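Hey,

The postdoc asked me to send both predictions to you directly instead of through the lab channel. I've kept everything plain text so nothing gets mangled by the mail client. Protein one:
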Amino acid sequence: MIFRKCGNFRNCFTDLRIKIFNIFIIFLYRQMNLHYFNFALIFLANFSMLVFGAFRNEHYNQASFRTKREIHLSELTRIFNEVPSVRHDDIALKLFENIFNILQQSRNSIHEVDIHSEIKNDAIGQAFALTFENTAVLCDLILRFPDVYHSHFDRMNNITTLLKWSFELLRQSQLMSTNDENILYLTEQELNFIPKDPNYVNEYNSHQKTFKERLASERKAKKLTGKRVKKPRLTPIRSEL
């Protein structure tokens, strides 16, 4: 099986090489001074291909997946922090569309391949890696921007089928941490793929709404402050008789 825990020195050394390569690629992108929106699309579409094309896919394991999760989350956080909040929904929509395309392409490559088989084809290994990583990022986005997803994709049966496939594949990979498993579980509830827990609350969306409401309140306060015009004080004029 190609997706396994790091159990020997060789695999651990490979994980170190992957991490160093990841850092190097990010450094190159930042030196290019790309617009953050374009960077997000390029990052999610091409980054995994660059990394996993450089190493034998039999070395892909939980440590590799965890490294990529940390990098993706860090970059997504940075992008949304530095881009004006009024553009967040637009960026989320573009990211959704981009990830769906990646997942569909990967599915076309591996739809008849057993995840537990001894895979020797690097292209197949890359397709699995892209599916795992982009599915995890997709869950992060859905929980933070559920309104964007629901308004554009709820009635698209092909997207629903694609996501159910990628969710199941990610679960079978056994690569997720406990937190990742919880995020996947919450996402399935948010999309009504499974019955919602009576105590279900999308805390990620709650934080997002609170953040947006605070920004809107601050903008409103600034506008009101700007409209206030100080009237000149009237001072009595004394005339000498």
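Protein two:
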Amino acid sequence: MWGKILHGKATLATHDGQAMFEHLPNPLPVARYHSLSGEVVPEQLIVNAWCDNTVMAVRHRQHRTCGFQFHPESILTTKGAQLLQQTIAWAQAPRGDA
């Protein structure tokens, strides 16, 4: 649970290329402003981005819900605007393709 202090640091997050991460560079430079991370991910969530052993993003298997462990709005997340646009589009898309 306790990791390195990574406030205001850019790091490379590897992702699955699915949902909101489709067509984005892989790995994706992202902005980190945290030093905590989860160790156990519930079955209902899909880990769709990670850095080493740190979960960087999840999405729900059935609902259009997701979470990021980085800041897509930061200038350090180089494709953050595209990621946010794609996340909104994914969240608003018809169900059945979570």
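Summary for protein two, as requested: Residues 2-92 form a domain with the Rossmann fold fold (CATH 3.40.50.880).

Thanks,
C.
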